[in-house]
Automatic annotation (TrEMBL):
GO terms for cellular component: cytosol. Gene3D superfamilies: 3.30.420.40. It comes from Geodia barretti. This is Xylulose kinase. PANTHER family: SUGAR KINASE (PTHR10196), XYLULOSE KINASE (PTHR10196:SF57). It holds the Pfam family FGGY_N. Belongs to the FGGY kinase family.
Length: 400
């Protein structure tokens, strides 16, 4: 949640030639929370501590460092993307990014690079379990440790396709070819825990705003039945309600109070309106890095229990929508670990590990929801809901 690195992020961005070059090199537009700008700020404020630092490890990679007893454990590609230091496509520490980040710091670029471990695949074996754990806890001496990754890369592992998480914030993880980026810089290019490329977009004002609208009409936080009935009375693509209680990250914009596109104030219209505008924002600002396909859109989160919300997701994305149970980072890490173990033990005569079949077995899927042609027609096309939404939303952002 770091937000005090604005000056450092801008310095790095300018140092490599601007926003476009920053995105092209790192896959992201120097988000404030990314590690490189945080390291730069620490170096500026506490140069003696920075100079005395031997190694910089991410928390996710510090864990395998402890498990192996080796501070030189590599940083994985997946979380390496979240540093503004790694070249996204070549998966190496980038000279231009390092130079811009280390400019003015003790020792310059060479010192910063010396503090960074090497880079490796998230599912690569980086060592064996340290003797401490074997002797104290009785682990098998053959236990191997993989590089691992962070929560977002690991959460993506059990799903090969596009994954939309409708939680307090909305997270849209879109599988890519590794070359497709977001030229606006709203989303971040990453690799998942088994090294597959994807784009990560997080909308701050997600289901928390849906809860707030229901609360406005006197419903308890988990009182969903009346809201579902209200949704059933409204034809998709009719109403727009805009509300951003918190500063938004996708697309980057300020907070503002509730705004209605019509004069009505009812649960049915406001609840439908806030759901459809929230989903429309994710869809529209993800379009630049999302391929047109009829492959299923995987959806997770509490909203998958609502047929009316899932109907609207299918219509806005115009593709089959497949609910999946909540898996999370721990399940994804476990799947990546199984794959790594299988890869380490396999030989040319062994049948290859089918990670999709395994993932389907451990992360249950529901029945697919097909887009309703009438809903698709209401949302898409010249002058239709999505176009109207974008025009109104972008005008609101100008006003605020």
């Amino acid at each position: 949640m770091t937000a005090n690195t604005t000056a450092q992020a801008e310095a790095v961005r300018k140092g490599v030639g601007g926003k476009s070059e920053m995105i092209d090199l790192s896959g992201s537009d120097a988000p404030l929370r990314f590690t490189g700008t945080v390291v730069r700020r620490v170096g500026e404020q506490f140069p003696e501590c920075y100079a005395a630092t031997a190694k910089v490890q991410l928390i996710s990679n510090f864990i395998p460092a402890v498990l192996t007893g080796n501070a030189e454990v590599p940083i994985d590609y997946g979380n390496g993307c979240g540093m503004s230091l790694m070249n996204y496509r070549s998966k190496v520490w980038d000279a231009a990014l390092l130079a811009a980040t280390a400019d003015g710091l003790p020792g310059g670029m060479e010192a910063l690079q010396s503090k960074l471990p090497t880079l490796a695949r998230p599912d690569s074996i980086v060592g064996s379990l340290a003797a401490y754990y074997i002797e104290k806890y009785g682990f098998d001496g053959r236990c191997a440790v993989i590089a691992g990754s962070g929560d977002n890369p690991q959460s993506k592992v059990p799903v090969a396709g596009d994954l939309l998480s409708l939680g307090t914030s909305f997270v849209n993880m879109v599988s890519t070819d590794g070359d497709t980026l977001d030229p606006e810089g709203f989303a971040n290019a990453m690799y998942d825990g088994i090294n597959r490329p994807f784009m990560f977009g997080c909308r701050t004002n997600g289901a928390m705003v849906w809860d707030a609208v229901r609360s406005h009409y006197g419903l308890a936080k988990e009182e969903y039945a009346p809201a579902e009935v209200a949704l059933q009375t409204v034809v998709p693509g009719q109403f727009m309600t805009f509300w951003q209680p918190k500063t938004e990250s996708f697309p980057v914009s300020g907070a503002f109070e509730l705004i209605r596109a019509t004069a009505q104030s009812t649960l049915a219209e406001d609840y439908t309106g806030i759901i459809e505008t929230s989903l429309a924002a994710v869809y529209i600002y993800s379009a630049v890095f999302t391929k047109q396909t009829q492959e299923p859109l995987f959806v997770t989160g509490g909203a998958t229990d609502s047929p009316e919300i899932m109907r609207r997701v299918a219509g806005i994305w115009n593709r089959p929508t497949l609910p999946v149970e909540k898996g999370g980072a721990a399940l994804g890490a476990a799947v990546a670990g199984v794959k790594a173990l299988f890869d380490a033990d396999s030989d040319t005569e062994t049948e290859s590990f089918d990670i999709e079949a395994f993932s389907t077995a451990v992360l249950k899927r529901g029945e697919p929801i097909q887009p309703n042609p009438a809903d698709v027609a209401a949302y898409h096309g010249e002058g239709k809901y999505l176009q109207q939404f974008q025009e109104k939303y972008e005008q609101i952002l100008v006003d605020f």
